[in-house]
């Protein structure tokens, strides 16, 4: 008798748990909505994450759920509050997201990118650094840099990133307010003159893949200059940032020489961007254990993952921990899964899953899959 | 009868014997017949009760009871057993048992027990005896210095401590191999080393230093005699002490990576903080290393907390607590709102 | 027509036996003798079984009886299913149970994704209500649909081996159903992964279509054709 009553109460409770919010703009979200899911509109999602940015397993979920929803969580709100409170005329503040694997660093970053998009920032987003430095398909396009001695270019990756940059900032680039400050001569016939819109520079990089890395270099320089001149405000997001500091990449030059991350032009470019010698910008980085090989995954704390070199490069930064689900977040997530038909069965399931997953979001999702 | 005599040869022994036997035979038969007539009926005594009653223990009347049993309980034991002596059962009024026996049996008692006699005993060293003996030799001792009246003063004036052990045990030899081991203990603070010398001394002695008690311990057991080991530990201490004071050329080449201590003032962290501060105030300046080092951070608000946080993060290692203090100090420095506690 | 009614009768008989089906899977049969003597009882690890014991007041009887420790796969977890365990054990090769488990779970995940997609594609509520979303339910119906009711045994008479039809035990038919499903799932292109193929096979079998159900029907047809030899079973 008691158990039946208890079950009824549970059922009623689980149905009454609200897990959705209609507040779709991250600019408006506040602490009352912690643990609730909000939907990203389809066209915005395609614009921001069409060329990567969301984890693969999450993309699969969005397909099954027929919508892209993100949970509003404390770390993202925390960073948004900080961005709102900070003075943009001061040097750019670096935020470092850290946490165990599967706690949602990348999704927090995605949430922040959505915020930046809504708040009108120019977004410079690197979806996953290891894609450049550690993933080596059979034919990785590599070439020695023309402009800088002893450096290695990754033209295809660079061009793909430029495309990503273009789609993410299409509205800002279309306005044409952003102009280039100086002439760039690529070859005898090709050059981008001063005063041309920024979009032209990006187009140049996409159409002439050979110069893509140099274009990114120029682009970063211009973005910093534009931000300093208060023509735009910039939001830099890099996922798996600590990969830049792992002593070796998996790349090999054609002469079978191992490449260090410092010898890749893209690394130096983004190092330049993550310095705090420019204003009107926000830099959000995430450090991830799985961005580096297994021999350096003992801890998830930022100093360990960034090495001393990376720590000194970023210092002073604001560490933001992305933790496991709290009680409330777990319940709301479970009821969301139930709503999306992902989770079925008796109410006791939640207690067991909570114990088995230890409130780790990714683990929870995985455990729900075969049920 | 006459027939027998007639035919016997005189002078032959055998013949005589035969004759006698025969004669006796004849006579006994005659006698037995006569006894049967006058004696009573003999009872067949199978259990031989009569013989048993007859056996009587014969005791000597002049044997004294055991001396141990007769001793007074309040006697002066020191007088009974004044010096080292082999065990004697009658002198020791104790129910001692000693010896190896199969399981379940009691060990043999003290009388005629070789086991007890083999081992050296300390029956002459009872506490009251020792006390009296100490009293007796007290007049030859010098007085304890009056100023050494507390542990601290003793430690101050005699910081060196030598520990060795003597062993008493049952074995054919009185020497124990462990008796040669010599421990030397000294407080590191009593050596009065400066910072560099202390660092070098610690590196020289390795794990012989205990941080909790501040004690340096040398243990020597490599020589066969205690005297040699004692000399050796003294030599070790002296050598390490003097070696730690000497400065080698290569010691000046020590860099940041070799130091186990992170000094914020000459590190990149301070440089980036100063740069950030200058940038905030729109001052563009190129500073030299020396200027960076000597930059006064009290001008920067909340910089002191930040400095401490970085120091603890670097020196105490990275953990949740140090990272949290680092985060909150950075937020204070940059003027950001505190993290909300959920 | 008569054959069909015959089969139906047989089928009813087997439905009746379904209740004993649970016992078939849950009983522990060891190929080798265990370290426990025979008087050790099997553990009762499901909460509902324990509740039943308490209701029938049989718990006190068990209190003094020695009981084997439960195996790792015998849990009181909410999502414990003896049939799923059985399938996992059939998928397992060389004792790599973790791998086998992950493969079966991935297959379940695929089934679930396919079914949810269908659910969202369905327009009317009636169609939606028809779609089974629970992958375990699909596995159960799939195996039920694949179980043969008759079997052929080779019997030698007069120098000729006849394929003689006969009844099949519950255990054997379960074994054949799982075996056929796995064989069908392993007949695939090299580029297709096992979980995907297995998911498709299960869905097909649950729909009463596909390779495995056809194989079952072939067997039944063969039995029907060899009806004339049936007397060899006892002659």
Automatic annotation (TrEMBL), chain A:
SUPFAM superfamilies for the chain: P-loop containing nucleoside triphosphate hydrolases (SSF52540)
Keyword field: Mitochondrion, Ribonucleoprotein, Ribosomal protein, Transit peptide
GO molecular function terms attached to this record: structural constituent of ribosome
Main location: mitochondrion
Keyword Ligase: no
Protein's cellular compartments: Mitochondrion
One Gene Ontology term from the biological process aspect of the record: apoptotic process
InterPro entries, alphabetized: P-loop_NTPase, Ribosomal_mS29, Ribosomal_mS29_met
Keyword S-adenosyl-L-methionine: no
Pfam families: DAP3 (PF10236)
Superkingdom as given in the UniProt entry: Eukaryota
Segments traversing the membrane: none
GO cellular component: mitochondrial small ribosomal subunit
Family in the record: Belongs to the mitochondrion-specific ribosomal protein mS29 family.
UniProt protein name: Small ribosomal subunit protein mS29
From TrEMBL, chain B:
Small ribosomal subunit protein mS35 mitochondrial conserved domain residues: 176-246
Pfam short name (any one): MRP-S28
GO CC entries: mitochondrial small ribosomal subunit
Transmembrane segments: none
Top-level division of the source organism's lineage: Eukaryota
GO molecular function: structural constituent of ribosome
Swiss-Prot/TrEMBL GO biological process terms: mitochondrial translation
PANTHER family linked: MITOCHONDRIAL 28S RIBOSOMAL PROTEIN S28, SMALL RIBOSOMAL SUBUNIT PROTEIN MS35
Protein name listed in UniProt: Small ribosomal subunit protein mS35 mitochondrial conserved domain-containing protein
Species lineage: Eukaryota, Metazoa, Ecdysozoa, Arthropoda, Hexapoda
UniProtKB/TrEMBL annotation, chain C:
UniProt KW keywords: Ribonucleoprotein, Ribosomal protein
Domain Small ribosomal subunit protein uS7: start-end pairs: 73-227
A GO MF label: RNA binding
One GO cellular component, as annotated: ribonucleoprotein complex
Presence of keyword Ribosomal protein: yes
Coiled-coil ranges per UniProt: none
Gene Ontology biological-process entries: translation
Keyword Ribosomal protein: yes
Protein family (similarity comment): Belongs to the universal ribosomal protein uS7 family.
Name recorded for this polypeptide: Small ribosomal subunit protein uS7 domain-containing protein
């Amino acid at each position: 008798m008691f158990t039946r009553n208890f079950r009824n109460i549970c059922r009623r409770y689980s149905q009454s748990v609200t897990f959705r919010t209609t507040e779709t703009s991250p600019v408006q979200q506040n602490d009352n909505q912690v643990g609730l899911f909000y939907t990203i509109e389809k066209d915005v999602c395609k614009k921001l994450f069409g060329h990567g940015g969301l984890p693969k397993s999450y993309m699969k979920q969005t397909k099954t759920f027929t919508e892209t929803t993100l949970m509003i969580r404390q770390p993202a709100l925390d960073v948004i509050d900080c961005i709102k409170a900070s003075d943009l005329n001061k040097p750019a503040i670096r935020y470092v997201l850290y946490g165990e694997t599967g706690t949602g660093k990348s999704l927090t970053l995605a949430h922040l990118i959505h915020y930046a998009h809504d708040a009108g920032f120019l977004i410079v987003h690197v979806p996953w650094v290891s894609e450049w430095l550690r993933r080596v398909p059979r034919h990785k396009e590599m070439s020695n840099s023309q402009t800088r001695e002893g450096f290695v270019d990754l033209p295809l990756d660079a061009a793909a990133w430029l495309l990503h940059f273009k789609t993410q900032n299409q509205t800002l680039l279309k306005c044409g307010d952003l102009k280039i400050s100086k002439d760039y001569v690529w070859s005898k016939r090709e050059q981008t003159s001063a005063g041309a819109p920024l979009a032209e520079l990006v187009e140049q990089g996409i159409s002439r893949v050979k110069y893509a890395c140099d274009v990114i270099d120029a682009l970063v320089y211009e973005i910093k200059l534009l931000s300093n001149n208060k023509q735009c405000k910039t939001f830099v997001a890099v996922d798996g940032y600590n990969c830049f500091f792992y002593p070796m990449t998996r790349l090999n030059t054609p002469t079978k020489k191992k490449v260090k991350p410092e010898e890749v032009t893209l690394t130096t470019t983004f190092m330049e961007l993550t310095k705090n010698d420019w204003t009107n910008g926000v830099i959000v980085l995430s450090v991830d254990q799985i961005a580096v090989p297994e021999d350096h995954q003992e801890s998830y704390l930022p100093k360990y993952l960034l090495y001393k070199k990376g720590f000194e490069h970023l210092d002073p930064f604001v560490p933001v921990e992305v933790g496991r689900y709290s009680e409330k977040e777990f319940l709301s997530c479970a009821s969301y899964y139930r709503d999306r038909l992902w989770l079925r069965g008796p109410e006791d399931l939640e207690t067991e899953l909570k114990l088995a997953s230890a409130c780790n979001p990714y683990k929870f999702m995985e455990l729900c899959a075969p049920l | 009868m006459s027939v027998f005599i007639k035919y016997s040869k005189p002078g032959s022994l055998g013949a005589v014997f035969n004759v006698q036997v025969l004669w006796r035979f004849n006579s006994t038969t005659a006698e037995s017949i006569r006894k049967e007539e006058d004696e009573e009926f003999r009872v067949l005594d199978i259990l031989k009760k009569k013989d048993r009653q007859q056996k009587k223990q014969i005791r000597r009347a002049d044997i004294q009871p055991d001396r141990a049993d007769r001793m007074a309980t309040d006697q002066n034991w020191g007088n009974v057993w004044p010096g080292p002596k082999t065990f004697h059962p009658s002198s020791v009024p104790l129910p001692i048992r000693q010896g190896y026996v199969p399981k379940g049996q009691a060990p043999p008692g003290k009388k005629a027990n070789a086991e007890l006699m083999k081992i050296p005993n300390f029956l002459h060293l009872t506490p009251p005896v020792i006390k009296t003996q100490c009293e007796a030799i007290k007049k030859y001792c010098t007085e304890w210095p009056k100023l050494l009246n507390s542990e601290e003063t003793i430690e101050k004036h005699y910081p060196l401590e030598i520990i060795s052990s003597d062993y008493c045990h049952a074995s054919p030899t009185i020497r124990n191999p462990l008796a040669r081991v010599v421990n030397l203990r000294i407080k590191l603070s009593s050596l009065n080393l400066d910072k560099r010398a202390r660092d070098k001394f610690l590196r020289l002695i390795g794990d012989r230093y205990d941080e909790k008690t501040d004690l340096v311990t040398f243990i020597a057991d490599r020589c066969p005699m205690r005297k040699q080991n004692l000399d050796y530990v003294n030599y070790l201490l002296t050598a390490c002490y003097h070696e730690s004071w000497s400065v080698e050329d290569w010691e000046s080449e020590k860099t940041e990576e070799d130091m186990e201590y992170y000094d914020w003032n000459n590190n990149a962290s301070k440089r980036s903080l100063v740069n950030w501060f200058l940038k905030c105030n729109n001052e563009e300046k190129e500073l030299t290393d020396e200027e960076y080092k000597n930059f006064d951070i009290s001008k920067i608000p909340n910089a002191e907390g930040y400095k401490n946080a970085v120091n603890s993060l670097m020196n105490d290692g990275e953990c949740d607590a140090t990272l949290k203090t680092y985060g909150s100090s950075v937020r204070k420095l940059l003027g950001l709102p505190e993290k909300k506690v959920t | 027509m008569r054959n069909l009614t015959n089969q139906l009768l047989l089928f009813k008989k087997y439905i009746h036996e379904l209740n004993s089906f649970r016992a078939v899977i849950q009983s522990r049969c060891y190929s080798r003798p265990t370290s426990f003597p025979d008087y050790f009882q099997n553990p009762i690890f499901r909460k509902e079984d324990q509740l039943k014991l308490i209701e029938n007041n049989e718990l006190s009887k068990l209190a003094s009886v020695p009981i084997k420790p439960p195996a790792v796969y015998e849990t009181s977890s909410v999502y414990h299913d003896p049939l799923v365990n059985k399938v996992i054990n059939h998928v397992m090769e060389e004792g790599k149970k973790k791998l086998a488990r992950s493969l079966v779970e991935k297959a379940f995940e695929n089934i679930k994704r396919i079914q949810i997609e269908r659910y969202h594609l369905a327009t009317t509520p009636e169609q939606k209500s028809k779609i089974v979303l629970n992958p375990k339910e699909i596995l159960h119906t799939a195996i039920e649909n694949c179980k043969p009711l008759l079997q052929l045994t080779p019997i030698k008479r007069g120098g000729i081996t006849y394929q003689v039809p006969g009844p099949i035990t519950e255990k054997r038919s379960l074994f054949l159903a799982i075996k056929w499903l796995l064989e069908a799932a392993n007949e695939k292109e090299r580029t297709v992964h096992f979980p995907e193929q297995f998911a498709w096979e299960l869905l097909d079998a649950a729909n009463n279509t596909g390779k495995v159900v056809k194989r079952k029907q072939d067997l039944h047809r063969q039995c029907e054709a060899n009806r004339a030899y049936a007397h060899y079973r006892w002659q």
